[in-house]
Design goal:
179 residues; mainly alpha; two-stranded antiparallel ribbon; two-stranded parallel ribbon; 9 helices
């Protein structure tokens, strides 16, 4: 709360905390679900309070996260805000877990290759969906995706396909390019 107070004073803006703004709709928190498929099949779902959304409309919105691990909770807030008609302009993270560094392009290509070989799809088509779904994922999350794709490629591909479709329906093709 001290950080929120400081932002409010320094930037002459309104600070709305997670507790004031949203309802966690997921059955379990992101940090308690381990592995790529567990997170993809039961993603974090957040709903923004309509009153809060109206306060944030036509404002520069910044999401501040304390610790970034997979990026799942931050992405869920971006999607919830976009669904409420509030674009996110920036994301600020105070600290990152060891696996919180950005994933490498080679990891995306390797995952797309594994899935394309299994499903018979073109690698480029699979890569596009992988990038929509995982484009801003952290290295550890992609490492888990690769590991699980080697043992359960059809299940990983189905999870990516479902998530890509949900993102297209919710926010028109993916989350904002903020960050």
């Amino acid at each position: 709360m001290l950080l929120a107070q400081r932002f409010s004073e320094d930037f002459d803006g309104q600070v709305i905390t997670e507790a004031q703004s949203a309802v966690l709709l997921s059955a379990t928190e992101a940090k308690t679900r381990r592995g790529f498929l567990a997170k993809m099949e039961d993603p974090t779902m957040i709903e923004v309070d309509p009153d809060v959304a109206s306060l944030a409309t036509n404002k520069n919105v910044v999401i501040v996260d304390d610790i970034l691990t997979s990026g799942e909770t931050t992405e869920a807030f971006e999607i919830a805000l976009a669904t409420a008609g509030v674009p996110v302009h920036h994301v600020a993270v105070l600290g990152a877990a060891a696996g919180g560094r950005p994933a490498l392009r080679t990891q995306f290509v390797e995952l797309a290759q594994i899935l394309a070989e299994t499903t018979g799809e073109r690698r480029g088509d699979v890569l596009k969906e992988v990038e929509v779904v995982l484009g801003r994922s952290r290295a550890t999350f992609l490492k888990n995706a690769l590991k699980e794709a080697r043992s359960e490629p059809e299940r990983v591909r189905a999870a990516i396909r479902r998530r890509a479709q949900a993102l297209r329906e919710t926010v028109g093709g993916g989350t904002s390019d903020a960050g």
